[in-house]
Specification:
This protein is α/β, with parallel strands linked by helices. It is 24% helix and 25% strand. The protein has a six-stranded mixed β-sheet, with no helix packed on it. Strands 7-8-9-10-11 form a five-stranded mixed β-sheet, with helices on one face. The longest helix has 11 residues, at 214-224. The mean pLDDT is 85.
């Protein structure tokens, strides 16, 4: 059972929008946005199943963005967020060039992170750990990717294609001993060991399409145990 008073005492607020899109506001007022997916479904009906009623224009600010992987359902709103707020954008070093090209992003404030590694921003620390995507589209050769992308906003761009390769789990630490763990894709041993030792306060796990990938739920139960 999560004791929300722990977060209130430390001045931390967070909210979930859709998919793996979360916003964290720290005591300083600065904010971190995870996997920006805030589509205007009237303008982009292909994303209607991901509509939360919010768009980037509803955000008050955004100082940092963390991208777990570069599939369209995790980065669709990134361009608009960057245009509005000019945040630091954290993305895997192997994906940063592809994502910047595909989304036409400014590159000076992009942080190409490695795994495993820890980055200290003062308001928070974030530790990156390797993960792998569940076998949706990463199980076919490169030449077949275009056939697998169709509709749902998932164009066969390089960042979409390679989004299955470079998936990231991470631990968010804030002053006061609060640790928030994010598990993406398959729960690989390196992440298991790191999270087991750190005993996170809160565990967040995306379980979209759980009916197709019940093993992801089994891994979550293992993690919690």
């Amino acid at each position: 059972i999560l004791n929300m008073d722990v977060f209130k005492e430390k001045g931390i607020k967070f909210r979930w929008f859709t998919e793996n899109c979360f916003e964290f506001e720290f005591q300083s007022g600065k904010t971190l946005l995870i996997d920006p997916m805030l589509p205007d479904v009237e303008k982009s009906p292909e994303w209607k199943e991901f509509g939360s009623g919010f768009t980037p224009k509803d955000l008050k600010r955004c100082d940092y963005v963390c991208i777990t992987h570069t599939h369209g359902d995790h980065v669709d709103s990134l361009k608009e967020v960057c245009d509005l707020f000019n945040p630091v954008v954290m993305v895997h070093e192997a994906s940063v060039v592809m994502l910047a090209k595909d989304r036409d992003l400014p590159i000076r404030k992009m942080l190409a992170y490695t795994q495993p590694a820890t980055y200290d921003f003062g308001d928070f620390k974030i530790s990156m750990y390797p993960g792998t995507h569940v076998p949706t589209i990463g199980d076919v050769p490169y030449s077949k990717f275009a056939e697998r992308f169709g509709g749902g906003g998932m164009e066969p761009t390089e960042s979409n294609i390679f989004g299955s390769c470079f998936n990231t789990n991470f631990m968010l630490e804030v002053p006061g001993g609060i640790r928030i763990a994010f598990v993406q894709g398959e729960y690989v041993p390196l992440t298991k060991n790191a999270f087991y030792k750190s005993r996170p306060t809160l565990l967040i796990r995306q379980l979209t399409l759980i009916d197709r990938f019940p093993e992801a739920f089994d891994a979550l139960i293992e993690c919690m145990d």
